[in-house]
Amino acid sequence: MVKTKVIRFRVKETMYAYMNDLVKEMRKVNPSWNMSELLRMIIQYFFMAHMMGEIKKPFLDVKNDFMDFLKDSETTAENVAKNDN
């Protein structure tokens, strides 16, 4: 599939740092991963879950909880991965 459209948006530095760390971790499994691929997957996941009625919590609640999570701890993708094991 040829991708021809570009979507750009800005995020806070903490969000960017988290996503960048996540991409670095993902590259350990697949070196072709990049920020665009991560964001493409997130958008696809959101639309699939939304269309199937799987999203139960309002967006602003999730956003606020996540930003509090980032503030309360020095969270990195590596730390999250360690906690998952």
Tell how many strands the DSSP assignment holds: 0
Helix count, DSSP H or I runs of 4 or more residues? 4
What's the pLDDT, averaged over the residues? 85
Largest β-sheet summary: none
Q: Which consecutive residue ranges, at least 5 long each, have pLDDT under 50? A: none
- Classify the beta-strand content into a percent band: under 5%
Proportion of residues in helical segments: 55-70%
Order of helices and strands: HHHH
- What structural class results from the helix and strand content? mainly alpha
| Radius of gyration based on Cα positions | 14 Å
Quickly count the domains: 2
The termini sit apart by 35 Å
**What sort of overall outline do the alpha carbons produce when their principal axes are compared?**
globular
Question: Can you describe what's shown?
Answer:
With 85 residues, this protein is mainly α. The chain has two domains: 30 residues, no CATH class; 31 residues, no CATH class. The protein has four helices and no strands. It is globular and about 35 Å long. The chain starts with 12 loop residues before the first helix and ends with a helix.
Short description:
The protein has 85 residues and is an all-alpha fold.
